[in-house]
Please model this.
Amino acid sequence: QSHSLQGTTMQYTTVLLLALGVVGEGAVKWTAENADKKTCLIFAAETINVNLHILNTDNVTEPISFSINETQKVTGNCNGQYNGQPANELVVSFFPNGEQPASATEGQPWRLMLWFTSADPESFKLADYTLETAFTSAFNSTIQNFTKAATAELDVHASGTNGFKCSTSGLALTDDSTIDLKDTKMIAHALLPSPDFPAEQGFEQCLLDSRTSDIVPIVVGACLAGLVAVVLVAYLVGRARAKRQGYASV
Model:
């Protein structure tokens, strides 16, 4: 299913330029704003690593890996549509590893496209994504379109005014390929006064982090219970010995 963002009647609003290095050194931050200069979407990650099985110009499928650490252009739409639902959209043009070729004949930018929908009870969720490759001499790559894998289980959503964050997550692509995200923070369908997360912004955790958060207090509680049991046993043993010694002295 094609979700082209070009040649449609959707009105593209003003979009923020690429922004890098806000979350941390080497980090990536992409934002979009509407016509009223309100930020509707923030996508931030410490690292974005792509692992593809790609068909090269020799017609051979080979695995390649690279990072998205620089972008050529970031455009977005705060008032888009996806399958009849309101959607915030991002289109990120980049060269793998930021290695821009010397000329257009040696390579063209690749494109990552993200769609965030809004529907009750969730304020937003990542509904779909695609990665379009192009010829790049550094990878000897061909034009190819990777879409969301049929088996992908998306755990990117939030409710109310919350954002979303996850320490480690991945976007499964077709052809056994993935986009791996580290330390991500996102918010969509918002009306923020600036392209930054508010200081008081609340976040919902991904399922993996939530499970980890639940395990910690359980482990701590079990350790404390074990410690109490050890102290109690030591006390009872000591008391029993004291009684025996008392009897022996009599």
In short: The helical segments are 207-249. Residues 232 and 238 are 10 Å apart (CA to CA). The first strand starts at residue 19 and ends at 20. The two ends are 93 Å apart (CA to CA).
